[in-house]
Amino acid sequence: MSPELVVALLAATVQAGTPILFATLGEIISERAGVLNLGVEGCMALASFAGFLVCHQTGSAWLGLAAGGCAGALLAGLHGLVCQVFLGNQVVSGLALTIFGVGLCNFLGTPYVGQATVGFQQFAVPALSELPLLGAVFFRQDALVYLSYLTPVAVWFLLWRTSLGLGLRAAGEMPAAAAAAGLNPLRLRFLGVLLGGFLCGLGGAYLSLAHTHLWTTSLSGGRGWVAVALVIFAFWRPGRAVAGAYLFGGIMAFQLRLQASGTNVPSSLLLMLPYVLTVLVLVLSAARARSAHGRGSAAPAALGVNIEPEG
Amino acid sequence: MAVQHQQHLQHDPDTGPVDVLPLVRLAGVTKRFGQVLANDGISLSIMPGRIKALLGENGAGKSTLMAMLAGRFQPDEGHIEVAGGRVRFDSSRQAIAAGIGMVYQHFMLVEDMSVAENVLLGQEGGFFLNPARMRAVVGELAGRFGLGIDPAARVGDLSMGERQRVEILKLLHRKSRVLIFDEPTAVLTPGETEALFDALRSMSAQGKAIVFISHKLEEVLSVADEIAVLRRGRVEGEFLASEVSSPADLARRMVGRDVLLDVRREAVEHGPVVLSVRDLSMRSVGGALLDNVGFDLRQGEILAVVGVGGNGQQPLVETLCGLTPPESGQVELLGESWSRFYAGNRWKGALAWIPEDRAGLATCRGLNLTDNLLLTTRQGFAHGQWLERGRATSTTGDIVREHNVQPGHVEAQAWQLSGGNLQKFVLGREMFREPRLLVAEQPTQGLDVAATEAVWQRLLDARKTAGVLLVTGDLSEALLLSDRILVMYRGRVMGLFPASDAVQVERIGALMAGLSG
Hints:
The complex is a heterodimer of chains A (311) and B (517). Chain A has twelve helices and no strands. Helix content of chain A is 71%, strand content 0%. Chain A has one domain (3-223). Chain B has 517 residues and is of the alpha/beta class. Chain B is built from 18 helices and 22 strands. Chain B has helices spanning 2-11, 62-69, 92-97, 115-120, 131-144, 160-173, 190-205, 217-223, 247-255, 313-320, 338-344, 369-377, 389-402, 419-432, 449-462, 475-481, 502-506, 508-512, and strands spanning 24-33, 36-46, 51-56, 77-82, 85-87, 100-103, 178-182, 209-214, 226-231, 234-240, 273-284, 287-298, 302-306, 328-333, 336-337, 351-354, 382-383, 386-387, 437-441, 467-472, 484-489, 492-498. A six-stranded mixed sheet of chain B has the order 6-7-8-3-9-10, with helices on both faces. In chain B, strands 16-19-20-13-21-22 form a six-stranded mixed sheet, with helices on both faces. A four-stranded antiparallel sheet of chain B has the order 2-1-4-5, sandwiched between helices. In chain B, a hairpin with a 2-residue loop joins strand 1 (24-33) and strand 2 (36-46). The longest helix of chain B is centred in the middle third of the chain and has 16 residues, at 190-205. The N and C termini of chain B lie far apart (58 Å). The relative contact order of chain B is 0.10. Chains A and B meet through helix 7 and helix 8 of A and helix 3 and helix 4 of B.
C-alpha cells in the first residue's frame, strides 16, 4: 500500500468511526444513569432523516444537526416514558424503539430517496492540518468530526467532574442511595436518557449530513447495534469508546476499500466483518471483566432495573 | 401514658434543664398499609444529647416509624414537630434539610464510588467537582469525629463497619441534629460494635440526638439513655435505661410476658445414627475448606457446630445438604452413602434444611406461601403430573396457624413477611416433611426474642424424631440447646465434646481461635 492510500484509509476510518462514537457516548450516558436503551439504532435512523429533512428544507446544516439531535432525544424520551413512568421492560421497549424508528424514517423518507443535500463540507483546520500524517487524517474533515473530538472529553467531564454526573452515576448504580441523598433518581435517569438520545441523534444526523449527503433508506445500517456492543467493550468509559469507535470505523473503511479494489472475496462476507468483530470484542471484554483485573469494568449495578415506587 | 412519661423525663435531673425542648416530637402518628396498621397513635419526644433506643420485635413498626421521620412516608394521622414547629415531609430531601438523618439497615451507598463521592452525593456545593477538595473535606470531617477512614477508598472494598462510618459521615456532613440508626449492629463484628457505640456516645455528647433501633436487649441497655418499647405498632412503654434492672426485665417489658430465657430442655432418648461423616475433606485454590472432618449424629440429640463464620461451616452444610458432592471421605445419611441418598431424593422422612439465607435460598420472595410450601414438598402434593393445589393451600393454612405466622393468610407473598415470621414458616414447612435429619443454619439470626424462643422450642421438639445439626455463631444458643458441641477452625474439627463438659466449654473461645494447646 502506498502512503497516500494509508492516509486516505485512516481519514476514512475517522469518518466512519464518528457516528459510532457519538452513539456510543450517548449510550454510555444512558447506561451510566441505569437505563439500557436498545433503541439506539432507531434513534440514529430517525435522526438521520430528521437531519436530512430540515437541512433539505432550510439549507442550514446546523439546523439539520439540531433537528437530528432532538429527534434522537425525542425517541429516547419515549423510551424513558415507557420505562421510567410506566415501568415497562427496558429490553422490550428498546427493541420496539428500534423497529419503530427505522420503520418511521423509511416510511416518511420514501418521497425523498435519492435527493441530495448540502450538509457539512470538509475544511482544513489552519496550522493543525499541516502536521505530517496527523494533519491529513484528523484535521481535513468536516465540523462534525471536529465536534466529535471534543465530545468524549465533555462526556467524561460531565460524568466525573460535575455534581450532575455524580448524581447520574448514582442513579445508575444505586437509585435508593441517590434518593436517600435527597436527589430524584427518576428525574436524573430521564435526563440521562434524553442526553444519550441527543448524542445518538447527532450520530444519526452525521450519516445523512456529512457522510452520504443524500437520503436513502436504512442509512443507519446496524451502526446503532455496534454502538450498544461498544459500550460494553468500552467498560462504560468515554476514553475506551474512542478506541472502540475507531476500531470499527477502521474495519468498515477497510472493507469498503477492499470491495472497491475489486477483490475476489464476496462482498457479503466483507460486509459481515464489522459484526464478526463485534462478537469477538464482546467475548474478549467479557473475559476481561471476569478476570482479576476486571474491577471497574463491570456494568452499572442497577443497569436495566427500573425504579419501583415505594409503598 | 406517653405524656406522663414525657413529663417524667423532663423532670429527671439526668435529662438536663427542664426548658430543653425536644428536637423532634411525634404527636399521635398513625400509618396504615392497606389493612395493616403499622403505627397506631405513636407519640414520642427525641431530645438533644440523648440516646433513645426504640426496642421492638420484628414487625412492631419501628422501621415504618423511622421512615416517616426520614420523609419516605407521610403519616395518615397525627403530625411531626421539629424544634416546636409542625412539619410535613414530602421527600427525604426535606427531612434532611430539617436535620433528620438516617443510617439504614441496608446501606444506601454506591459501591463503585469513593468514600468522598458517597458522602458528598447531593451536597457537592457547586456544579463542578474538585476531587482533591472533596477528599480533604471528608477527611477533615472524619478526623473531627474520630471516624478513621480513607476518603479515596472505593466503598465496595470496605468492611461493613467502615461502610457504616461512611453513612454516619454523610449525616454529619449534612449537619444532621437527629441521627437515626436502624439495627446498626446487625452487620458488625463485636469490635466494630464497640467502636460504633463509642461514636454514638461522642456524637451524643456533642449535642446530637441519637435514635437507636434494635431488638438486642444487651446492646440497648449498654448504650441507651432512654428506652421506648414498641409492640404491634404502639408505644407500650417508655422509661429510662437506669430503671431497667436486667435484660430479662427488659425482655419482659418488650414481649409483655416472661420470656423463657432458659427453654425447657428435657432429655430425649438417643436413637440410631442418622448422620455419619468420616475424613471429609475439600480443597480450593486458597487451601483446605474442609480438613478431615468426622463426627456422628444420633436421633434425639442436637449437635451444635460453632466457630467464627467462614471456617468451613458453609462447605460442610452444602455437602451434607446435597449441593456439593464430598470431594474425599465418606458421608452417610440415614445409613445410605451420599450419592445413593441424593439419587433417591425422598421428600419426606429424610433430610430437611433451614438455610441461613431464609429470604433468598429458603423461599422465593415473589411467590405466595402455598407456592413456597411446594418448593420443598411438591412430591407430597403431586398426583402423577398434576399438582393438588387445594390440599397444598389447606396444609399451608395449617402451618401458618400452628406456627403463628403473620400475616396469617396463605396468599401473602414471602417478601411481605418479616424475618421472624418467614423463619417460622420455613421451619413449619421443613418439619412438615417429618425429617429424620435436620440441618439448621443460624436459625435465630436477626429474630426477636419471641420468634427466637419459638424456633428454639421447635428445634428441641424435633429431637423426638430426628437428629439436629445446629450450625450457629451464637455460643449461648449452642450451649442452651445442644447435647454436644463441635468447634471448627479453618475447616478442621478443633474439639467435639458434650455441652455438659464444663472444662471443655471454658476452652471454646480458644478452640475457635485455633489454639488447641
